Amino acid sequence: RKATHAKDEL
Amino acid sequence: MNVFRLVGDLSHLLAIIILLLKIWKTRSCAGVSGKSQILFSLVFITRYLDLFTNFISVYNSVMKIIYLVTSLGTVYLMYFKFKATYDSNHDTFRIEFLVVPVGGLSFLVNHDFTPLEILWTFSIYLESVAILPQLFMISKTGEAETITSHYLFALGSYRALYIVNWVYRYYTEGFFDLIAIVAGCVQTILYCDFFYLYITKVLKGKQLKLPA
């Protein structure tokens, strides 16, 4: 699994 | 969006509102670290620059704006409106000892070497340690008002709930952001000692006083 970006979080 | 994330966000919002109301109702910011509040404002400013470039949802944008406005409002109340009540001689943590290393680290360890990305990373790292001036202030005075301890509990719970959210997202979506997760764990660990005192003292109706 590849790291994803938590930009949809606050 | 899952329930852990939502309750985490609401807990974060509750923390900010508790603090604002405490300052507003008592007309005093005694016992509150202005330095931590400045750091939190800096966290929101550097993280939410994407408010104009990256639309996620109405919920996301509205919450970002609320966090920004309320945290800047807290700083305004502390440093302008109720400045006379600000306990600056107990708020002596040197924030450059946090901002400088965190700034360096965000240049070294990030998802992408672009200005917005580095600022986002900076905000994630800075948030994880931004409470230290407040905890330092409590350790200096040896006590915290009950309302301040409720504030800290809500603020600490928020990142702890985010950790549960990340575990849930990992299993349901295969989602993980290592930078956010590691920083979020550090942030939560910093609250552990406080959580212990909160549960064993404040919830039993006593004031939060540190053992001498």
Detailed description of the structure:
Chain B: Keywords: Cytoplasmic vesicle, Endoplasmic reticulum, ER-Golgi transport, Membrane, Protein transport, Receptor, Transmembrane, Transmembrane helix, Transport. Chain B: This is ER lumen protein-retaining receptor. Chain B: One of its GO terms (molecular function) is ER retention sequence binding. Chain B: The chain crosses the membrane at residues 65-82, 94-113, 119-138, 174-199. Chain B: It is a multi-pass membrane protein. The complex is a heterodimer of chains A (10) and B (212). With 10 residues, chain A is low in regular secondary structure. Chain A contains no helices and no strands. Chain A is rod-shaped and about 20 Å long. The N and C termini of chain A lie far apart (23 Å). The longest helix of chain B has 28 residues, at 146-173. Chain B contains eight helices and two strands. Chain B has one domain (3-85, 93-203). Helices cover 71% and strands 2% of the residues of chain B. In chain B, helix 2 runs antiparallel to helix 5 and helix 7 runs antiparallel to helix 8 (178-200). The mean pLDDT of chain B is 96. Chain B has a two-stranded antiparallel ribbon. Chain B is globular. With 212 residues, chain B is mostly helical. At the A-B interface, loops of A face helix 1, helix 3 and helix 8 of B.
